[in-house]
């Protein structure tokens, strides 16, 4: 491996920030792990049981494991790249340095498309849930969700970390309550977990791939761990393991309780019908928390990517600058959710599939370049998981996901998929 002779060897002392417009605020280990879990666990976890009703639970579990492992590897590539870089950057800034302008714009557009699409869905979903809870209009419900969500984004990385920590702990607690109630329910039958047909496993693969979306927050975590860089990979792996467990036990519980044939599109309905009204409210509160934490993770990443990409905006700590960029991040999704522009929102989702391919390829290219041209020899490196064969498998995984999305859009898939 050829190395830049000017590279420093190091840890925290070598990672003093250059001017990048991004502030350094320390994160605790729990806050960093919660950022991973909170970003990954969106409301989509509640639709997985319905989405796998033909294939069954075991194919879903297999694909969740495969997607989780390869996404974690991709995140660790980003981790090493950030640890090799003296200045603090978001994904777009890292791509600018190590891949060039084309890569930087590709990453930035990927972040923008995925974030706007997801935040729009959270605006719509939160409005519907709060409308059911309080008998208000969905738009007012979305506004009640929007205000605290945007306020925490305005406060910045430390507030996001604390918010993710407390709400993620709440999500895990609610999940455990629902799962335990399911396990002791007389209707629960674990034989349901072995039903289904592996013929229908391919669509489930695509669902599993997009359950993991926390690549965006790794540079945020790296900023928070600039004082203790060795914690970054440990936090990434810990967060992804917890994510996998949550993604696995929610559909497991609902399928064991109701069987494949009785699944509703949203698991909250299935739990409510089987366990009672308390489960309906608990599960919907879980959904709100999941949307909030994912909103913070994706929205916070999008916000800092804008500052990193457009350095002329100045420091993110400037109140006027931050408020302006916050408006760019938060207001369009609220408008799109109630504009009736369904086609545009669907287009954003479809574009997100292509951005997944960008997110698989760019970390590989960035890591290879950082190993040659980085500033620091980091205290932690990827090791065997950076083998070219592993990198090829990561790219193939996301290319197959994109191919499935294209085939689905063009109507080339067999009936029942």
Automatic annotation (TrEMBL):
Compartment(s): Cell inner membrane
Protein name per Swiss-Prot or TrEMBL: Amino acid permease
Pfam family, one: Trp_Tyr_perm
Source organism of the structure: Pseudomonas alkylphenolica
Membrane topology designation: Multi-pass membrane protein
Keywords: Cell inner membrane, Cell membrane, Membrane, Transmembrane, Transmembrane helix, Transport
TM region(s), chain numbering: 29-51, 57-78, 98-121, 133-154, 166-185, 197-218, 234-258, 278-303, 323-341, 347-367, 388-413
Keyword Ligase carried by entry: no
Principal location listed in the UniProt entry: membrane
GO cellular component: plasma membrane
InterPro entries per the UniProt record, alphabetical: Amino_acid_transport_2
Source organism, top-level taxon: Bacteria
GO biological process, any: amino acid transmembrane transport
């Amino acid at each position: 491996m050829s190395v830049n002779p000017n590279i420093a060897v190091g840890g925290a002392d070598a990672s003093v920030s250059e001017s990048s417009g991004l502030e350094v605020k320390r994160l605790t280990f729990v806050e960093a792990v919660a950022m991973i879990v909170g970003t990954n666990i969106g409301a989509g976890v509640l639709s997985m049981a319905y989405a796998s009703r033909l294939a069954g639970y075991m194919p879903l579990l297999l694909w969740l494991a495969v997607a989780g492992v390869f996404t974690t590897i991709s995140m660790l590539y980003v981790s090493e790249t950030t640890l090799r870089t003296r200045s603090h950057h978001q994904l777009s800034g890292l791509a600018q340095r190590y891949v060039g302008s084309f890569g930087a714009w590709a990453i930035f557009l990927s972040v923008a498309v995925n974030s706007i699409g997801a935040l729009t869905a959270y605006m719509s979903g939160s409005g519907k849930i709060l409308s059911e809870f309080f008998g208000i209009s969905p738009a007012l419900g979305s506004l009640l969700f929007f205000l605290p969500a945007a306020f925490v984004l305005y406060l910045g990385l430390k507030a996001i970390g604390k918010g993710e920590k407390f709400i993620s702990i709440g999500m895990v607690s609610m999940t455990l309550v629902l799962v335990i109630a399911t396990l002791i329910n007389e209707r629960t039958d674990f034989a349901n977990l072995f039903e289904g047909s592996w013929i229908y496993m391919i669509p489930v693969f695509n669902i599993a791939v997009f359950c993991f979306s926390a690549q965006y927050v790794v540079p945020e975590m790296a900023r928070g761990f600039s004082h203790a860089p060795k914690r970054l990979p440990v936090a990434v792996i810990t967060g992804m393991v917890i994510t996998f467990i949550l993604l696995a036990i929610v559909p497991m519980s609902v399928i064991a309780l109701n069987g494949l044939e009785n699944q509703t599109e949203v698991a909250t309905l299935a739990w409510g019908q089987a366990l009672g009204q308390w489960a309906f409210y608990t599960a919907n509160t879980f959904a709100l928390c999941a949307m909030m934490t994912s909103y913070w993770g994706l929205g916070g990443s999008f916000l800092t990517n804008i500052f990193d990409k457009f350095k002329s905006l100045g420091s993110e700590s400037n109140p006027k600058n931050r408020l302006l960029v916050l408006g760019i991040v938060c207001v369009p999704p609220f408008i799109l959710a109630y504009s009736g522009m369904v086609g545009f929102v669907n287009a954003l989702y479809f574009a997100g599939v292509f951005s997944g391919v960008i997110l698989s390829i760019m970390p590989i290219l960035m890591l290879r370049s950082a190993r040659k041209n980085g500033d620091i020899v980091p205290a932690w490196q990827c090791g065997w998981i950076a083998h070219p064969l592993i990198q090829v498998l990561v790219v193939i995984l996301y290319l197959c996901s994109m191919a499935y999305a294209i085939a689905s859009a063009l109507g080339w898939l067999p009936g029942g998929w």
